[in-house]
């Protein structure tokens, strides 16, 4: 069962932004994709205040994006792990990464690269496509709003 929406917006983008639209939440999700699992590791990687991290982790757990588990190494620690719902945010994180690579770095400026582990090559650029596989620019789409 999906979590109760924070608002009654009929727009899926607005509802999603309510949950993962702030900087810290998205960076926590990004780090979770990189196998960061413990509170202290998130804090160290992100350099954020403990109270803000606690709040964002709690909200991500409540939203069903992360779940808590006992530490995999048998210690008393708790780990935060992406749920299937959280893992489905991967294309969102990749799209933001690719937009940033394209628009926020000077030519030749170094940045991290997302690679396919099987080939060691950067992943191809993501783009919406039509049923026949052709690229869909915004001008060829429309949102059917609730009336």
TrEMBL record:
<dbReference type="GO" id="GO:0006355">
    <property type="term" value="P:regulation of DNA-templated transcription"/>
</dbReference>
<keyword id="KW-0804">Transcription</keyword>
<dbReference type="InterPro" id="IPR036388">
    <property type="entry name" value="WH-like_DNA-bd_sf"/>
</dbReference>
<protein>
    <submittedName>
        <fullName>Helix-turn-helix transcriptional regulator</fullName>
    </submittedName>
</protein>
<dbReference type="GO" id="GO:0003677">
    <property type="term" value="F:DNA binding"/>
</dbReference>
<dbReference type="Pfam" id="PF01638">
    <property type="entry name" value="HxlR"/>
</dbReference>
<dbReference type="InterPro" id="IPR002577">
    <property type="entry name" value="HTH_HxlR"/>
</dbReference>
<feature type="domain" description="HTH hxlR-type">
    <location>
        <begin position="11"/>
        <end position="108"/>
    </location>
</feature>
<feature type="region of interest" description="Disordered">
    <location>
        <begin position="124"/>
        <end position="147"/>
    </location>
</feature>
<keyword id="KW-0238">DNA-binding</keyword>
<keyword id="KW-0805">Transcription regulation</keyword>
<dbReference type="InterPro" id="IPR011991">
    <property type="entry name" value="ArsR-like_HTH"/>
</dbReference>
<dbReference type="InterPro" id="IPR036390">
    <property type="entry name" value="WH_DNA-bd_sf"/>
</dbReference>
